[in-house]
Design goal:
Number of strands: 0
Order of helices and strands: HHHHHHHHHHH
Pfam family, one: BPD_transp_1
Subcellular location: Cell membrane
Structural class: mainly alpha
Number of helices: 11
Distance between the termini: 38 Å
GO biological process, one term: phosphate ion transport
Strand content: under 5%
CATH architecture: Orthogonal Bundle
Shape: flat
Radius of gyration: 25 Å
InterPro entries: MetI-like, MetI-like_sf, Phosphate_PstC, Phosphate_Transport_Permease
CATH superfamily: MetI-like
CATH topology: MetI-like fold
Number of domains: 1
Function: Part of the binding-protein-dependent transport system for phosphate; probably responsible for the translocation of the substrate across the membrane.
Length: about 325
Protein backbone atom coordinates (compact mmCIF):
# COMPACT_ATOMS: atom_id res chain seq x y z
CA UNK A 1 0.00 0.00 0.00
CA UNK A 2 1.61 3.31 -1.03
CA UNK A 3 2.41 5.75 1.76
CA UNK A 4 -0.03 8.52 2.35
CA UNK A 5 0.86 11.85 0.78
CA UNK A 6 -1.58 13.86 2.83
CA UNK A 7 0.13 16.86 4.46
CA UNK A 8 -0.50 17.56 8.11
CA UNK A 9 -2.90 20.33 8.88
CA UNK A 10 -1.25 23.76 9.12
CA UNK A 11 -4.25 25.57 10.52
CA UNK A 12 -3.18 28.28 12.93
CA UNK A 13 -4.53 28.15 16.43
CA UNK A 14 -6.35 31.41 17.18
CA UNK A 15 -4.66 33.54 19.81
CA UNK A 16 -6.40 34.49 22.98
CA UNK A 17 -7.20 38.17 23.49
CA UNK A 18 -4.75 38.34 26.38
CA UNK A 19 -1.96 36.96 24.20
CA UNK A 20 -2.66 39.53 21.48
CA UNK A 21 -2.71 42.38 24.02
CA UNK A 22 0.54 41.26 25.62
CA UNK A 23 2.19 40.82 22.21
CA UNK A 24 1.11 44.30 21.17
CA UNK A 25 2.35 45.87 24.41
CA UNK A 26 5.70 44.10 24.12
CA UNK A 27 6.12 45.20 20.51
CA UNK A 28 5.14 48.76 21.41
CA UNK A 29 7.67 48.83 24.26
CA UNK A 30 10.42 47.68 21.91
CA UNK A 31 9.48 50.28 19.30
CA UNK A 32 9.33 52.97 22.00
CA UNK A 33 12.88 52.19 23.04
CA UNK A 34 14.05 52.51 19.45
CA UNK A 35 12.20 55.81 19.07
CA UNK A 36 13.75 57.17 22.27
CA UNK A 37 17.22 56.09 21.15
CA UNK A 38 16.73 57.66 17.73
CA UNK A 39 15.46 60.84 19.39
CA UNK A 40 18.55 61.10 21.59
CA UNK A 41 20.82 60.53 18.59
CA UNK A 42 18.95 63.14 16.53
CA UNK A 43 19.17 65.67 19.37
CA UNK A 44 22.91 65.13 19.82
CA UNK A 45 23.63 65.38 16.10
CA UNK A 46 21.49 68.51 15.69
CA UNK A 47 23.00 70.31 18.67
CA UNK A 48 26.56 69.23 17.86
CA UNK A 49 26.39 70.23 14.20
CA UNK A 50 27.42 73.90 14.72
CA UNK A 51 30.65 72.77 16.39
CA UNK A 52 31.27 70.16 13.70
CA UNK A 53 31.14 72.84 11.00
CA UNK A 54 32.70 75.74 12.95
CA UNK A 55 36.22 77.00 12.22
CA UNK A 56 38.93 75.50 14.42
CA UNK A 57 39.74 78.84 16.08
CA UNK A 58 36.16 79.20 17.33
CA UNK A 59 36.26 75.93 19.25
CA UNK A 60 37.33 76.23 22.93
CA UNK A 61 41.09 75.94 22.97
CA UNK A 62 41.36 77.37 19.45
CA UNK A 63 42.74 74.17 17.89
CA UNK A 64 39.64 72.46 16.56
CA UNK A 65 37.12 69.93 17.74
CA UNK A 66 39.37 66.90 17.30
CA UNK A 67 42.12 68.39 19.47
CA UNK A 68 39.49 69.32 22.07
CA UNK A 69 37.86 65.91 22.23
CA UNK A 70 40.93 63.67 21.91
CA UNK A 71 42.35 64.18 25.46
CA UNK A 72 38.87 63.67 26.92
CA UNK A 73 38.38 60.51 24.87
CA UNK A 74 41.80 59.27 25.94
CA UNK A 75 41.01 59.84 29.62
CA UNK A 76 37.65 58.10 29.22
CA UNK A 77 39.14 55.03 27.56
CA UNK A 78 42.17 54.64 29.82
CA UNK A 79 40.14 54.93 33.01
CA UNK A 80 37.43 52.54 31.83
CA UNK A 81 39.81 49.93 30.41
CA UNK A 82 42.05 49.83 33.48
CA UNK A 83 38.97 49.63 35.71
CA UNK A 84 37.86 46.65 33.64
CA UNK A 85 41.25 44.98 34.08
CA UNK A 86 40.86 45.24 37.86
CA UNK A 87 37.15 44.42 38.11
CA UNK A 88 36.80 41.39 35.82
CA UNK A 89 39.17 38.98 37.65
CA UNK A 90 37.70 40.03 41.00
CA UNK A 91 34.15 39.60 39.71
CA UNK A 92 34.87 36.11 38.36
CA UNK A 93 36.59 35.09 41.61
CA UNK A 94 33.71 36.42 43.71
CA UNK A 95 31.13 34.70 41.51
CA UNK A 96 32.99 31.39 41.77
CA UNK A 97 33.31 31.71 45.54
CA UNK A 98 29.62 32.52 46.00
CA UNK A 99 28.51 29.75 43.65
CA UNK A 100 30.83 26.85 44.51
CA UNK A 101 32.81 27.50 47.70
CA UNK A 102 30.86 29.61 50.19
CA UNK A 103 28.34 27.97 52.54
CA UNK A 104 24.76 28.58 51.49
CA UNK A 105 23.92 31.21 54.11
CA UNK A 106 27.17 33.10 53.58
CA UNK A 107 26.66 32.94 49.81
CA UNK A 108 23.20 34.49 50.14
CA UNK A 109 24.49 37.32 52.33
CA UNK A 110 27.42 38.01 50.01
CA UNK A 111 25.10 37.98 47.01
CA UNK A 112 22.86 40.59 48.64
CA UNK A 113 25.84 42.75 49.59
CA UNK A 114 27.30 42.63 46.09
CA UNK A 115 23.95 43.56 44.58
CA UNK A 116 23.63 46.38 47.12
CA UNK A 117 26.83 47.95 45.83
CA UNK A 118 25.04 48.65 42.53
CA UNK A 119 22.45 50.76 44.38
CA UNK A 120 24.98 53.11 45.98
CA UNK A 121 24.88 56.55 44.26
CA UNK A 122 27.96 57.40 42.26
CA UNK A 123 28.54 60.60 44.19
CA UNK A 124 29.02 58.50 47.34
CA UNK A 125 31.73 56.53 45.57
CA UNK A 126 33.31 59.80 44.53
CA UNK A 127 33.34 61.16 48.07
CA UNK A 128 34.76 57.87 49.35
CA UNK A 129 37.49 57.99 46.72
CA UNK A 130 38.41 61.60 47.46
CA UNK A 131 38.26 61.51 51.28
CA UNK A 132 39.37 57.95 52.08
CA UNK A 133 41.06 56.26 49.15
CA UNK A 134 43.08 59.21 47.82
CA UNK A 135 45.03 59.87 51.06
CA UNK A 136 45.73 56.14 51.44
CA UNK A 137 47.38 56.00 48.01
CA UNK A 138 49.91 58.80 48.62
CA UNK A 139 52.53 56.57 50.25
CA UNK A 140 52.15 53.64 47.80
CA UNK A 141 52.33 55.92 44.76
CA UNK A 142 55.48 57.53 46.19
CA UNK A 143 57.02 54.05 46.43
CA UNK A 144 55.88 53.21 42.90
CA UNK A 145 57.39 56.40 41.53
CA UNK A 146 60.67 55.78 43.33
CA UNK A 147 61.20 52.12 42.42
CA UNK A 148 59.05 51.63 39.30
CA UNK A 149 59.28 55.08 37.77
CA UNK A 150 60.76 53.62 34.58
CA UNK A 151 57.27 52.31 33.77
CA UNK A 152 55.23 55.08 32.09
CA UNK A 153 52.23 54.42 34.33
CA UNK A 154 54.26 55.26 37.46
CA UNK A 155 56.58 57.94 36.08
CA UNK A 156 55.52 60.50 38.68
CA UNK A 157 56.07 62.84 40.32
CA UNK A 158 53.38 61.43 42.65
CA UNK A 159 50.49 63.64 43.62
CA UNK A 160 50.59 65.03 47.15
CA UNK A 161 46.80 64.82 47.45
CA UNK A 162 46.27 61.39 45.92
CA UNK A 163 43.59 62.66 43.53
CA UNK A 164 44.97 60.80 40.56
CA UNK A 165 43.82 58.72 37.65
CA UNK A 166 44.79 55.62 39.63
CA UNK A 167 42.24 56.45 42.33
CA UNK A 168 39.58 57.15 39.70
CA UNK A 169 40.32 53.76 38.13
CA UNK A 170 39.94 51.97 41.47
CA UNK A 171 36.65 53.77 42.17
CA UNK A 172 35.32 52.83 38.73
CA UNK A 173 36.40 49.23 39.27
CA UNK A 174 34.41 49.08 42.52
CA UNK A 175 31.40 50.62 40.80
CA UNK A 176 31.27 48.13 37.92
CA UNK A 177 32.13 45.14 40.11
CA UNK A 178 28.52 44.30 41.13
CA UNK A 179 27.27 44.48 37.52
CA UNK A 180 29.87 42.03 36.25
CA UNK A 181 29.56 39.77 39.29
CA UNK A 182 25.77 39.49 38.99
CA UNK A 183 25.86 38.47 35.32
CA UNK A 184 28.75 36.04 35.75
CA UNK A 185 27.20 34.46 38.84
CA UNK A 186 23.95 33.76 36.99
CA UNK A 187 25.91 32.23 34.10
CA UNK A 188 27.80 29.93 36.46
CA UNK A 189 24.55 28.86 38.12
CA UNK A 190 23.21 27.79 34.73
CA UNK A 191 26.08 25.36 34.12
CA UNK A 192 24.48 21.94 33.44
CA UNK A 193 24.60 19.85 36.61
CA UNK A 194 25.36 16.73 34.57
CA UNK A 195 28.59 18.29 33.30
CA UNK A 196 29.72 19.12 36.82
CA UNK A 197 28.83 15.68 38.17
CA UNK A 198 30.50 13.94 35.24
CA UNK A 199 33.74 15.85 35.85
CA UNK A 200 33.73 14.97 39.55
CA UNK A 201 32.87 11.35 38.79
CA UNK A 202 35.91 11.08 36.53
CA UNK A 203 38.12 12.10 39.44
CA UNK A 204 38.46 15.84 38.86
CA UNK A 205 38.95 18.11 41.83
CA UNK A 206 36.56 20.98 42.39
CA UNK A 207 38.93 23.44 40.72
CA UNK A 208 39.46 21.09 37.76
CA UNK A 209 35.69 20.75 37.43
CA UNK A 210 35.37 24.55 37.40
CA UNK A 211 38.18 24.91 34.88
CA UNK A 212 36.90 22.23 32.50
CA UNK A 213 33.11 22.58 32.84
CA UNK A 214 32.09 25.89 34.43
CA UNK A 215 34.49 28.41 32.91
CA UNK A 216 34.05 27.19 29.29
CA UNK A 217 30.29 27.36 29.70
CA UNK A 218 30.39 30.90 31.12
CA UNK A 219 33.18 32.32 28.95
CA UNK A 220 30.93 34.27 26.62
CA UNK A 221 28.87 35.53 29.57
CA UNK A 222 32.05 36.81 31.21
CA UNK A 223 32.87 38.67 28.00
CA UNK A 224 29.36 40.08 27.74
CA UNK A 225 29.35 41.14 31.40
CA UNK A 226 32.73 42.80 30.93
CA UNK A 227 31.40 44.80 28.01
CA UNK A 228 28.38 45.90 30.04
CA UNK A 229 30.68 46.98 32.85
CA UNK A 230 32.82 48.84 30.35
CA UNK A 231 29.75 50.69 29.13
CA UNK A 232 28.99 51.77 32.71
CA UNK A 233 32.56 52.90 33.30
CA UNK A 234 32.66 54.91 30.07
CA UNK A 235 29.66 56.99 31.08
CA UNK A 236 30.42 57.55 34.77
CA UNK A 237 30.33 61.24 35.66
CA UNK A 238 30.22 62.44 39.25
CA UNK A 239 32.62 59.95 40.83
CA UNK A 240 35.33 60.79 38.30
CA UNK A 241 34.63 64.53 38.48
CA UNK A 242 35.01 64.52 42.27
CA UNK A 243 38.14 62.37 42.40
CA UNK A 244 40.27 63.63 39.54
CA UNK A 245 42.57 66.61 39.73
CA UNK A 246 42.31 67.59 36.07
CA UNK A 247 45.00 69.44 34.16
CA UNK A 248 44.28 68.28 30.63
CA UNK A 249 46.65 66.72 28.15
CA UNK A 250 47.31 63.12 27.17
CA UNK A 251 49.48 61.10 29.51
CA UNK A 252 49.82 57.48 30.61
CA UNK A 253 51.06 58.61 34.02
CA UNK A 254 48.49 57.35 36.54
CA UNK A 255 49.95 58.76 39.77
CA UNK A 256 50.76 62.40 39.05
CA UNK A 257 48.59 65.46 39.56
CA UNK A 258 48.37 66.01 35.80
CA UNK A 259 45.40 63.94 34.67
CA UNK A 260 43.28 63.98 31.53
CA UNK A 261 39.60 64.39 32.23
CA UNK A 262 36.85 62.15 30.88
CA UNK A 263 34.10 63.20 28.50
CA UNK A 264 31.29 62.78 31.01
CA UNK A 265 33.14 64.54 33.84
CA UNK A 266 34.15 67.42 31.56
CA UNK A 267 30.55 67.95 30.46
CA UNK A 268 29.34 67.97 34.07
CA UNK A 269 31.98 70.48 35.14
CA UNK A 270 31.91 72.80 32.12
CA UNK A 271 28.27 72.84 31.05
CA UNK A 272 26.85 75.21 33.72
CA UNK A 273 29.20 78.04 32.70
CA UNK A 274 29.20 77.43 28.93
CA UNK A 275 27.28 79.41 26.33
CA UNK A 276 26.95 79.48 22.56
CA UNK A 277 29.40 77.37 20.63
CA UNK A 278 30.94 76.03 23.83
CA UNK A 279 27.68 74.25 24.58
CA UNK A 280 27.62 72.77 21.09
CA UNK A 281 31.19 71.58 21.57
CA UNK A 282 30.31 69.84 24.82
CA UNK A 283 27.33 68.19 23.14
CA UNK A 284 29.63 67.07 20.31
CA UNK A 285 31.87 65.37 22.86
CA UNK A 286 28.73 63.80 24.32
CA UNK A 287 27.89 62.50 20.85
CA UNK A 288 31.27 60.77 20.73
CA UNK A 289 30.61 59.17 24.12
CA UNK A 290 27.11 58.16 23.01
CA UNK A 291 28.51 56.43 19.93
CA UNK A 292 31.22 54.59 21.88
CA UNK A 293 28.79 53.45 24.58
CA UNK A 294 26.29 52.31 21.98
CA UNK A 295 28.91 50.27 20.15
CA UNK A 296 30.15 48.70 23.39
CA UNK A 297 26.66 47.68 24.47
CA UNK A 298 25.82 46.33 21.00
CA UNK A 299 28.96 44.20 21.09
CA UNK A 300 28.03 42.95 24.56
CA UNK A 301 24.53 42.03 23.44
CA UNK A 302 25.91 40.29 20.38
CA UNK A 303 28.33 38.23 22.45
CA UNK A 304 25.58 37.20 24.86
CA UNK A 305 23.18 36.26 22.06
CA UNK A 306 25.82 34.19 20.30
CA UNK A 307 26.45 32.04 23.38
CA UNK A 308 26.00 28.42 22.36
CA UNK A 309 23.24 26.81 24.34
CA UNK A 310 23.97 23.32 25.48
CA UNK A 311 22.58 21.02 28.13
CA UNK A 312 23.65 17.85 29.83
CA UNK A 313 22.13 15.82 27.00
CA UNK A 314 24.49 16.79 24.21
Amino acid sequence: MPPSTTRPSTRRVPQRPGDRIFSGLSTGAGVLILIALAGVAAFLITEAWPSLTAPAEDIPGGEGLLVYVWPLLFGTLISALFALVIAVPLAVAIALFITYYAPRRIAQVLGYLIDLLAAVPSIIYGLWGMQVLAPLTVAPTTWLSEYLGFIPFFAGPPSATGRTMLVAIIVLAVMILPIITAVVREAFLQTPRLHEEASLALGATRWEMIRMAVLPFGRSSVIGASMLGLGRALGETMAVAIVLSVSGGVTFNLISSGNPSTIAANIALQFPESTGLSVNTLIASGLVLFAITLVVNMIARGVINRRKEFSGAN
